[in-house]
Predict the structure.
Amino acid sequence: MIKIRFFTLLQLLLNRKELELPYIPEETIRTLLERIQTQIETRFLHKLLQEQGNLKIGTIILVNGRNIHHLQKMNTPLSDGDEVALFPPGGGG
């Protein structure tokens, strides 16, 4: 299983804190995000990704506590039992 945890505004938008999906061999962050969107009716990927599919500035995605920017970015491979944390860009002022 892969555990996905939603934080800040994503929790409010999706009205949930987490989701668990079966592990699929060879899955990456990119394909996991697409799969999550098929499991949840509320559209949320636009909060994390640009139209080209790249991360928006300020989006943080952690795999087992490690930022994917320091791994293989959107091509970061996943393993059974991984925990993925999704943080949308923050606002402030």
